[in-house]
Every structure is written in C-alpha cells, then in structure tokens.
Amino acid sequence: MSGSYRYSLGERTYRFDSLAELMAKATPARSGDRLAGVIAESAEQRVVAQMALADLPLATFLEDLLVPYEEDEITRLIVDRHDRQAFETISSFTVGDFRNWLLSDEATPEVLDALRPGITPEMAAAVSKIMRNQDLILVARKCRVRSAFRDTIGLAGHLSTRLQPNHPTDDLTGIAASIFDGLLYGNGDAVIGINPATDNVAQSVKLLHMLDAVIRKYEIPTQSCVLTHVTNTLEAIEQGAPVDLVFQSIGGTEATNRSFGFGLAELAEARDAALSLNRGTVGDNVMYFETGQGSSLSADAHHGLDQQTCEARAYAVAREFKPLLVNTVVGFIGPEYLFDGKEIIRAGLEDHFCGKLLGVPMGCDVCYTNHAEADQNDMDNLLTLLGVAGCNFVMGIPGSDDIMLNYQTTSFHDALYVRRALGLKSAPEFEAWLKHMEIVRDGDSHRLSERLPQAFARSLDQLPETGS
Amino acid sequence: MSDRKPRTPADTAGDDIGVVDNPWQGLRAFTDARIGLGRAGISLPTQRMLEFQLAHAQARDAVHWPLNVDALSEQLTDTLGIDAPLRLHSQAGDRTEYLQRPDLGRRLDEHSRKSLQETVDAEDSPFDLALVIVDGLSARAIEAHAVTFLAALSRELDADDNDWRRAPLTVVEQGRVAIGDEVGEAFNARAVLVLIGERPGLSSPDSLGLYLTWAPKRGVSDGQRNCISNVRPEGLKIEVAASRARYLLNEARRLELSGVKLKDRSEDDVIDHDKNETGNFLTY
Fold it and tell me: Does the pLDDT value for residue B281 go beyond 70?
C-alpha cells in the first residue's frame, strides 16, 4: 500500500518512507510532533517535505490511506462518504495546484461550497501545511458554513460567542451570576454552555433545567448545553431533561474516540434522540463537538501521524453529524503539544481553515494555560486573525479567567472588542433580542446601554445582599 | 504613589475617568468569577486589566521558579526531626525541556538512579509507604505547603491503628507524578504518595497535589492512582488533606489497590452542594 516519496534538491535526494512521514515532516514545527518523534529533523528537511508534498497529486490521498480502512471506522467514514463527482473539479490537481486554486478568483464561496464532499481531511491537512497564515485566513474567509437551532450562526459579517459560566462547584447562584454578566455584555448567541464540575447524569439534568428556565424566561434566541459525555446526555434525554445540544469531545482516529468512551454509533444514536425532541426553532443542528490538536497522541492513538492531520480527520466525524458548533480548544492541551503563542496561533488558524474547507461550522476556544509560553497579547492576535478569517464563534467568559477549568480564554469584553474592531455582529435573531431587551443601544449594536435593562434589574432586586 | 495599596473593588466604584461601572458588582459575592468588571468603552478598565496581568505574572513565576532544595531540606530536618531527604533529578535537564517532554520528567536520570539504589541498599526494606516530594509545575506550592503537610500527615499516621513504616524521604527536581513509581518500586514500598506542585491557576499559584499509588512500579497507568487536589490554605485545607490521605492510604491497604476502584467516600458530602443556597435568581 504505502510507498516512499522522494524529492531531489541539488545533489541530494530526500526520501520519506511513507505518506504519514511526508505529512509529518512537512508540518510547521510544534512540540507535540517533537514529542511523538515525527517532527522534521531540520528546517531544510521541513521545506523539502513541503516541496515534495506540493508535487503530490491530491488523488494519492484516496489510494494511500494514512490509517488502514480495516482498522479504523473514521477512515471508513472518510472513504465511503467521499464524493467522486464533487472531487472531479480538483481531481487532476497536485497539493500545490490546490493551494493556488483555492486562492484564485475561480474559487468563489459557491464553488467551495459545492466542492466540500469531494475534499477529504487529509487533502485539507496537506494543503494547509504549505499555506502561510494569510493564506489560511483568506481561503477560510471564503468558506461560509451556516448552522442553526434557535438562531443562525456562521453568516458572513457575524461572530457568535459561547457564554461559558463555569463554576468550581456547579453552584447555581454562581453560574447564574456569570450568565447575568455575559448576557449584559451581549454574549451567548452560539450557546450557553457549562462544563460541569461534577460530571454525572443527575448533575447534568439539574443544570439543563436551570439553563432551560433562563432561556425561556427571557425568551433568548439561543440554546443550552451541558458539556458532559454523550452517554450521559443520552440518559438525560431518556429522563425527559430539556436537552438542546448533544456534546462530545471527538478525535480523528477510532482509537482516540474509544479512549473517550464512544464510537460513531453512539453519536448517531444521541443525535437521533436530540432531534426527536424537536426543540429548535430556526434549524435542527443539534450537535456540539470539541476537538484539539494533540488529543490522539495524548491517548496513544495517533498511528504515527502528526497531530494536525489527526485533528483534520476529526472534522470528518463532525461533519457526518451536521453540528451546530465545532470548537477547536486550541491552547488547552498544554506546551508539550503547542509550546508557545506562535504555535497556538498557527494551530488555531490551521484548524479553522481545515474545518471550514470541509464544511464544518468552526469556532475556536482561543486559549492558553499558565505553563504555556503565551499571554493575553497572543490571544488578542489569534482572536483578531480569526475574526478576519470569518470564524463562526469564540468563547466568552468573565474576565478571561475560567475558575473551574483553570485556563484563560476570551472574555465577554474580548468578544465586543473584535466585533467592534472588525464591524461584526452577533447572530441576527440574538442581535434583535439584544436590542429588544435594551442591552445594546438602538441603532448601534456595538454600544452597550448605560442603564441596566428592566428585566434584569428586577432579577437583581430579588437579591437582598447585592450592593447595587 | 508607589506605596499606595491596591484598590479594592469598592474603592474604584464610580470614580475612574472613562469607566462605566456595572451595577451588579454585588453578584461577586456569589462567585470568584471576574464578573461586574465594568468597562472603558467596551474594553477592560485599567485597574481590572492590571489585576489580571498580576495574577498571570504570579502564575508564570510559579511555573518557572526553581525549587530551593537546600532550604527545603533544612526546613524538613528542623521541623520533622528527620534525616535530610535524598535529592533526585529527572531526565529533563531544565524547565524548557521539562515543559515539552513530559516523558523525561517521569524518569530518573542516571546519577539519581545510582544514588537511590545506594540508599535502598543501605536500608532495610520493604516499607509501607514512600513519600516523594516533586516540584512539578509549581515549586512555590512545595516551598509553601510540603513541610506543613508532611507534619500533619505524620501526626495522622502516628495515630493510626496500622503501622506505617516510611522509606527515606526523597525530593525530585523537574519531576512529574509518575516519577514516584520508580522511587516507590526501588524502595519496595507498598504505597507511594507523591506531593507535587500543580499547574498554577490564575488565583492559585501555590496549589499542592497529592497522588497515591498502591504497589508502585514503572509503567503504572494514571487510572491506578487516587488524587487529592487543590491543597492550599484557600482551597482544601492542609489538615483536611492529611486526614483524607490517611483515609485513602488505609482503604488502599485494605483493598490492596488504588485508582478508580478505590472510591473516596470521604468526599460524598460535597457533591451537589450549593454553598450560596440562593439558587438561580435569574428565574425568581
């Protein structure tokens, strides 16, 4: 099956023993590939690998499978779902041609939309490896992926946020306080999504009821999610809990997902269950997935692939289930996978590009941990770049500080910054709600009201101790 | 000017030029989340922005702070009246390598292996328990709490019905949790308890973690460990952590295992606990 790949530079011929090795060596440097022992041995070898990759026909990826068909249900998904007719447009291209064509004026949003089923994750990963950051941004910007449940996410000129009101003990008042803060900063149109501190069915059901009550009382055109294991959500649905979205962390190999405790069959079952509740008003995208480079290596399930190729394969899983939201949690995994701000920024742009090219409604958790060589300025950079690239959504939390997961992500303020700087709006249905509730000023959605909106003032008045 | 004390939220209310305060600052009583920060336009007010920068700076310093092993040894001998601990080092040469190569942080370097073996040969094994101090991601946590914790644990174990014969204390630099397995195995200890500096959070640069592994040996999986996390004065109190460690050690000894099958029932009372008891005020 897999042959070797050669490239001559002057006197010297470089040899790459497999397609996996060629892909890995062509990947811009990052610590996770070093940890896995698949990184290029020199800067020169990396560029030579990129040159060899650029000469490779795209069709090679349909023949030389990186993870064997028999061993991996994601490979089977990728191969069985591949649309030869859609692929026709690019079937004669090399990876280098593909980059040129994607950047060309021929590749309009409509053409790219029609092409999606013909592109495999490996093709997307390959072309991303020979693209500069500006290429990743410019092409991603042309790929609009729209999804909807109670509002519409991913329209051009819009940037949504997940309101993430986490609390270290799942304290309902504490969670409500963060939701209050977030809504009044105009956040929460992608989802109000809690990572539960206590991860079991009973706790999830309790939080689901709480979120449902808030959304109903204020008639917010958004959806809720408790980010617990897919099997827990399935059980919650069986118990009659008000589930809007089914969450699951996913990876790009079957073994990764087995280590997470699920397979494609469980995702299909959970999706059917959520669809049967019929809770969406403007759409029926009921899945929320999270991904991130390094998860397959971390689960010892990477089959010798580089981490970015594994990540792109996860998007094949995502698109199969027509999600509302897919979110690469790019800097959460730590410096052994993405060492510093430079590597995190590059990975965030790659993930967003590959996801969008494949037709996934891609957002990004623009984030870092305290042991990574990164800071708020790096996050400002990535947030701005993703805003330009047309990212569907980012996180919104109070003051960038997640007090439950102990990492830093984008704040409510950050979302308003990028919306104002780039002239972006929240989802149209949510935007209308913000105006109706008088959270933003009439006529200028980039300015917040000076006064506390009435409905929220009433809730605050119920609390005796607040010093308002 | 420079000796002015940092202002509290109450001081800043309403008196900063260009800042719009949030009238819901009182909600801060219900959560440590950074809510009600106010805004300058739509951006963070200067004071709030710098408060965040300070918290991050402290967390960053904690990650890179080198463990002062000499000072720690002195404190340990003075406070606990024990011999100076054996000083060991992982295969990660420095912090930069440590951060990128967790695999190297899980193994002792050659020199450490030899000196550990010499110590083991001079001792009368087996032991009931090996205590291993590891810098991990926060040497500050070790410097701040390791001695106090060990003193509290000694009181617990000395009062216990079971005899807990302890191996010589070791301190490992540039180490990860799993390095305790190699130390415990060398000492032929029935259990190892690793004290390690946890990854610093923004408001917790000095959080200590405790990892218990029954029958330690190289290659043990993380599923075979029990963890007590967030040990610090503002988190899980030192004395509570010591008593919980004693509980887990006895349970491990009774069941002859550790990890997912050893459930920490001493924690059951905190599950589903609503400290504020105010509930979801948004839907009153």
Answer: yes
Residues A274 and B208: their CA atoms lie apart, in Å, by 41
Q: In chain B, which residues fall in CATH 3.40.50.11240?
A: 67-263
**H or E element, residue A445:** strand A444-448
Inter-chain touch A172–B23, beta carbons under 8 Å: no
| pLDDT tens string A417-430 | 999 999 999 999 99
Cα–chain-centroid distance for residue A166? 19
Compare all CA atoms of chain A with the CA of B19 and give the residue at the minimum distance. Answer: A450
Amino acid at B170: T
Which residues of chain A are within 8 Å of residue B20 when distances are taken between CB atoms?
448, 450
- What residue of A is the nearest CA neighbor of B267? A198
Interface test with B, best of A199, A413, A434 (most B CBs within 10 A): A413
Query: What is the dihedral angle through the alpha carbons of B11, B17, B23, B24, rounded to the nearest 10 degrees?
Result: -70
A335 vs B contacts (CB less than 8 Å): 99-100
B63: chain A residues, CB-CB within 8 Å: 370-371
Disruptive mutation site among A179, A181, A400 for chain B (greatest number of B CBs within 10 Å): A181
Q: What are phi and psi of A328, to 5 degrees?
A: -90, 120
Q: What are phi and psi of A333, to 5 degrees?
A: -75, -25
Per-10-residue mean pLDDT for chain A, 468 residues long? 82 95 98 97 97 98 97 98 98 98 98 98 98 98 98 98 94 96 98 90 94 98 97 96 98 95 97 98 98 94 97 98 98 96 98 98 98 98 98 98 94 98 98 96 87 92 62
Q: Which domains does chain A show, CATH number per domain?
A: 5-142 (1.10.220.70), 147-448 (3.20.20.70)
- The ipTM assigned to this model is 0.95
For CA atoms A129, A130, A134, A137, the dihedral sign is negative
- CA distance, residue A420 to nearest chain B CA (Å): 9
B267 touches chain A (CB under 8 A): no
B37 lies within 8 A of chain A by CB: yes
Domain B67-263 in this protein, CATH class: alpha beta
Is residue B66 exposed (0-12), middle (13-18) or buried (19+ Cβ within 10 Å)? exposed
How far is the C-alpha of A58 from the C-alpha of A51, rounded, in Å?
14
For A327-382, what is each residue's pLDDT tens digit? 999 999 999 999 999 999 999 999 999 999 999 999 999 999 999 999 999 999 99
**Tokens of residue B232, six digits:** 């610090």
Query: φ and ψ at B178, to 5 degrees?
Result: -65, -10
Cβ <8 Å between A460 and B23: yes
What does the DSSP 8-state code read for residue A88?
Answer: G
- The two beta strands, A401-402 and A393-396, are unpaired
What is each CA distance from A458 to A439, A453, B10, B24, B204, in whole angstroms? 14, 9, 23, 12, 35
- Comparing CA positions, the residue from A214, A279, A220, A270 lying closest to residue A247 is A270
Residues of chain A in contact with residue B30, where contact means CB-CB under 8 angstroms, are 171, 173-174, 176-177
Cβ of residue B221 closer than 8 Å to a chain A Cβ = no
Given CB atoms, is B104 within the 8 Å cutoff of chain A? no
